[in-house]
Amino acid sequence: MYKIGIAGATGYTGVELLRILSRHPNVEIKTLTSETYKGKRIDEVFPTLRNFASQELVSLDSSVGEGLDILFLALPHTTAMDEAPKFLKGDCRIVDLSADYRLRNASTFEEWYAVPHTQRELLKSVVYGLPELHREAIKSASLVANPGCYPTSAILALAPLMEEGWIDLDSVIVDSKSGVSGAGRKPSQGTQYCEVNEGVSAYGAARHRHTPEIEQEISGLAGRKLQITFTPHLMPMTRGILSSAYGRLTKEITLEKLVSYYKDYYEGEPFVRILPTGQLANTSYVSGSNFCDIGLQIDLRNKRVIVTSAIDNLIKGASGQAVQNMNIMLGLDEKAGLDFAPSFP
Ligand SMILES: NC(=O)c1ccc[n+]([C@@H]2O[C@H](COP(=O)([O-])OP(=O)(O)OC[C@H]3O[C@@H](n4cnc5c(N)ncnc54)[C@H](OP(=O)(O)O)[C@@H]3O)[C@@H](O)[C@H]2O)c1
User: Fold this and answer.
1) What are phi and psi of 243, to 5 degrees?
2) pTM, 2 dp
3) Among 97, 243, 286, which residue has the most ligand 1 atoms within 8 Å of its CB, making it the best to mutate?
4) Ligand 1 within 6 A of 181 CB?
5) Could you give the CA distance from residue 14 to residue 72 in angstroms, rounded to a whole number?
6) What is the pLDDT of residue 342?
7) Domain count, the chain
8) Looking at residue 164, what is its pLDDT?
9) If 0-12 CB within 10 Å is exposed, 13-18 middle and 19+ buried, where does residue 300 land?
10) How remote is the CA of residue 215 from the centroid of ligand 1, in Å?
């Protein structure tokens, strides 16, 4: 059994990690950290975990990584940045769910996050943990930067189009909608019930921090620097992300050919489901699972391709993908612990 720790076990992604890992056949959860609840048992803090996990929460100090094979960092960004190097000293490898190591270029990080990157040297060896694009590199990585939730949905939607030459790569627009759990458990005015219920709001247009992450990965596929227009929206729902991506067609293709091309591109991928011709993505059909559903349409009148993708932000957008990365790093079945259908309704 591999020994696992979760730093930040009491946040939304930490608890989701614990829910998934408590049923994983190849791991044993050794260490869970929380500053607010240290000394309490995790099932006292989260009654949903009764009969599944009962470890005592401990403070995050440098002994936490001892004897671990994998430590998940489910901490706020900028906190994870300086914690990660402390635990890379022994055999312990890290999957970091924060944004701190996702951007390969430290200056780009500093531009978008407005804080200095204190671990520039370490950045050079980090692997961006989107298995569909970087599976080989993830296998031997010591530090995997788990992708953001919006980027996971947007990059998986766009990746096949980056290499085929069917769209004008400078015309891409991504419009995404997220459930409120995307903002984490820490209370804030903008995520209170009365602020989000019965309303939909756009935010961060043209300046959301996930923009350079999407651009980094699609640029890598296209072989040149690309920029996109990205607008996220907050939806009155708990979980889920729906992204709609648009690009101007430069060639005439049929919808059938586009769907068939996407199916070939993601052939063998255990967690990407290309929907039948004419069907579009729906967050309800992936909720509680590690799937990303992709549905396609062609707007013939305006010569645009429309790609819709749906994920559960806490699973394929965070903790499920982190476990998928762990499975790859440890040489386990990639589906271990994750092979379950979405919950519906
Ligand atoms: N929510 C999502 O859908 C999502 C998706 C992808 C990525 N992410 C990223 O994943 C990370 C965790 O997100 P989350 O939504 O789980 O956040 P969260 O619900 O706010 O949880 C944060 C966790 O970090 C701990 N923590 C906070 N400050 C700390 C500090 N200074 N030292 C040690 N522990 C500290 C908290 O523990 P205590 O308060 O108990 O001490 C809590 O367990 C973030 O970087 C986020 O951007 C989130």
Assistant:
1) -115, 140
2) 0.98
3) 97
4) yes
5) 8
6) 95
7) 2
8) 84
9) exposed
10) 24
